[in-house]
Design brief:
Layout lengths: L1 H31 L5 H27 L3 H27 L10 H11 L3 H29 L3 H23 L4
Length: about 180
Amino acid sequence: MTLIGTQTQLTMKSVLKPILTALLFAVGASSYAQTATPDDKAFVAKVSQGGMFEVAAGRLAIAKGSTQDVRDFATAEVHDHMLVGAKLKKTAAETGITFSTEPNAMFTAKLQHLQSLSGAAFDQAYLSEMDTLHGIDGAAFAAESTKGGTAAFRAFGAETHRIVLRHIGAIRAVPAS
């Protein structure tokens, strides 16, 4: 009878030990999950809108840009901001933040204005919008990189700030049409 009791205990231990270990790990890991701060939420709301506008305006510039330099810059904008947007969405979701996937009234109006232009006027307005927005969002990313409420947002801010600085250089390198 001792042998059967010992065998049952060994079987129970071998079954329960991995389950309990997994449960303890899950409980411990969830206590380390970081929650976004109100400032993180405001940051996400702000830069998600700018990013959506930059993608939409970039797509428009690919079609309407009057020079190859403008179309090339717009292509890079769309590519980079699609990647940044995906990373923002993932980071936001991991910290419980949701955000609108539609541009707000201000960015909708800016896009409509760009749609009404053509030729050199379009190029100038597009590049001006990109320069202004990259300056504003660049400052937001720089601030988030040091003051973000979670490590994930600080890392995202730092990485994206470098991309924004590269874009600012590219904007200013496009020759005037």
